[in-house]
Each structure stands twice: as C-alpha cells, then as structure tokens.
Amino acid sequence: MEQKGSYVGANSFRFDFSHYEKISHETLNKVERLVNSLIRANAPLEEFRDLPIEEARSKGAMALFGEKYGDKVRVIKFGDSVELCGGCHAPATGNIGYFRILSESAVAAGVRRIEATTGINAEISVDIMEQVLSTVKSLFGNVPDPVAAVNKIISENEQFKKTIEDIAKEKVADLKQSLKSSVRTINGINVMTLDRCPSMDIAKSLAHAFYAETENTVFAAAFASADGKPNLALMYSHDLVDGGKDAGKDIREAARLIQGGGGGQKSIATAGGKSTEHIAEALARLVELATA
Length: 292
What we know:
The chain is of the alpha+beta class. 41% of the residues lie in helices and 28% in strands. It is built from eight helices and 13 strands.
C-alpha cells in the first residue's frame, strides 16, 4: 500500500492510498483506535531544520511521492514517525484531541480514499450520530437494542412483500380465468377486455400471460388506478403481430382520449393519462383498432 495523495483543510482532511478492495468496517475501527492511541501518547514535535539529506535518511525520514529535495531538508518527528515535510504541525499529538473517520471510498482504479476529521469537528460528528441513534430508538419505543428492532422490521417487511406477491398472483389467476370465460369474437379475433384492475402491474402480468398462452387474441384494459389516474394496457398475440398489428402504435392513439401517452412493443404496450372522463371510449377505441 502506498500513499497516493492527501489534503488537509480547516474542518477535515483526506488520505488517498493504493488498495485493491474496499476497507472493512472492522479495519477502519482498528485504524481509528490506533490513531487515537497515538494521539493520547502525546508525542512531542521534534523538528530538524537544514539537515543534510543523507543524515535525514539515516534517521529514517520518508520522502513521499518521489519528490525531489535539495541538499538540506527539514525533518519532522513524532515518536517513531519521521518524515521530510515543509508543512505546519501540532506541538504534540495530544493537541489533536480526537480522530474520527467520516468515510472510505474508491476514487480511481486501485486507489481508495479515507476522509476524516479531528478535534471539535470529530466530536460534532459523534454528537450527530448519537442524535440519529436516539431518534431511531425513540421511533421503536426506546428499545435497548435498536439494531434488533430494525432487523425485525426488515424481516416482517419481507414477509409482507411475499404475502402481497402471493395475493397478487392469486388475483391475476382469478382475473385470468374470468377473462377467458368472457372472451368475445369480433371480426374473427378473440377479444378480452378489462375495465377494473387493482394495478398496472397486474394488468401487465395478465398481458404477458396471455401473450405466452394464446393465439389470434387481443387483451385490452382501461382502468383507473388507486390514485385516480387512467391506465391502458394492450396485448396482441404473436400471430397478430406477425400479421402487422402494433400495440405500441395503437395504444398511443387511444391514449389521446385520456390526455396521455404511452408505448411499448408491438406485442405489449401500456399508457397513462390525466383524465378518466373518456376512459370507456379509450377502451372501445383499443378494441376497434385491434379488430379493424
């Protein structure tokens, strides 16, 4: 691992270094603890000015980034750390106070970046995290283990999602059977229409199911969603598409009646709009275009 860059500002600093993968949370914690232990050691600043370069190297001074130095250099030493440096430094490590890592991220291929802060700004960052934790705990009735509470909510949410998906599948199956039993034949084409539907997702599921199972068949849907907005869906079986039908083109024309637009493939297309006033006419227009 090599240093690839750094920046020191009034409120924070960054340190870039070569590394092949993301640094784990556990490793970052170890870095924080190590740095803070060095800060608490309160190593004093030792400064050597106009030191011959060879003597500086014999003291173990490191020259970073391959920078070129003259015959005389400045050497900074804190405990076992010895560097060639021309910047400003604290009188002792204890003056830094407290070190806290704010983030770790990738900045280029093989280069990672740690952003951190010290002193009062580090304390403020901890205060903010404690406030967030306190808020989370209060949302769960001040439970002693908010992590367990959050994990429980996530688990329950996954179970609810699965239950909803199962209900949706049952609804699709019921609607599918009902539509099949009420199929009409218009101009030699089997037509199924739907004017009430819980959601566009269900309408799409029906369209894909019918496309996979039927021939010489049209499925057209026009309904208002839970938010009151009109939706259209249109499916042409593969043989009708081969014969020249285009669901995307036809649904765009019908969508004008609901002050909307849409599109899709020649086989399956959807549309949304702003007005439900002429939604029945939009469904009739879909059927008219499909059986023309």
